[in-house]
């Protein structure tokens, strides 16, 4: 009897727990052209924050740059324009969707490269 009520309590906790963010970066292709605007698309859940900062990162050598602040998450896509000097060229880059003005990572892309 105790096990049954414990199981019921656990199931209720799981059902009542708010869902985690579900931003998901759509398939990332390599970016061709460091001076070429790049399209980024994603999926989202109704519980996701309405905006995020788009951050370009690489672990080695280290690189981190906000390339699009306060992106409208409800748009499901955006075009990122390179800043003066263009995007960096190399391999092992990822995009992170980071809570706007914060540090919480909401989603991360697979690795891709940026060619000249």
Describe this structure as you would to a colleague.
- The protein has 116 residues and is mainly β.
- It has one domain (21-115): Immunoglobulin-like, CATH 2.60.40.
- It is 13% helix and 43% strand.
- It contains 1 helix and 9 strands; from the N terminus they run H-E-E-E-E-E-E-E-E-E.
- Strands 2, 4, 5, 7, 8 and 9 form a 6-stranded mixed sheet that branches. It has a 3-stranded antiparallel sheet with strand order 1-3-6, with no helix packed on it.
- A hairpin with a 5-residue loop joins strand 7 and strand 8.
- The chain is globular and about 40 Å long.
- The termini are far apart.
- Mean pLDDT is 87; it is low at 6-19.
Could you give the count of β-strands? Answer: 9
The first-level CATH class name? Mainly Beta
Multimer state: single chain
Number of H- or I-type helical stretches: 1
Point out poorly predicted stretches.
6-19
* Series of secondary-structure elements, N-terminal to C-terminal: HEEEEEEEEE
List keywords for this structure.
116 residues, mainly beta, Immunoglobulin-like, 6-stranded mixed sheet, 3-stranded antiparallel sheet, 1 helix, globular, signal
Walk me through the topology.
Elements: H1 2-16, E1 24-25, E2 31-32, E3 38-43, E4 51-58, E5 63-72, E6 77-80, E7 90-99, E8 105-108, E9 112-115
In short:
This protein has one helix spanning 2-16; strands spanning 24-25, 31-32, 38-43, 51-58, 63-72, 77-80, 90-99, 105-108, 112-115. The chain is mainly β and 116 residues long. Mean pLDDT is 87; it is low at 6-19.
């Amino acid at each position: 009897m105790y096990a049954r009520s414990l199981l019921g309590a656990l199931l209720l906790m799981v059902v009542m727990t708010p869902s985690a963010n579900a931003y998901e970066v759509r398939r990332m292709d390599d970016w061709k052209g460091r001076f070429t605007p790049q399209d980024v698309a994603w999926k989202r859940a109704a519980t996701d924050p309405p905006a995020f900062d788009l951050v370009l990162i690489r672990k080695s050598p280290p690189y981190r740059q906000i390339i699009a602040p306060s992106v409208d998450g409800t748009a499901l896509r955006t075009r990122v324009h390179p800043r003066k000097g263009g995007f960096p060229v190399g391999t092992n880059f990822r995009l992170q969707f980071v809570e706007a003005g914060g540090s919480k990572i909401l989603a991360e892309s697979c690795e891709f490269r940026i060619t000249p």
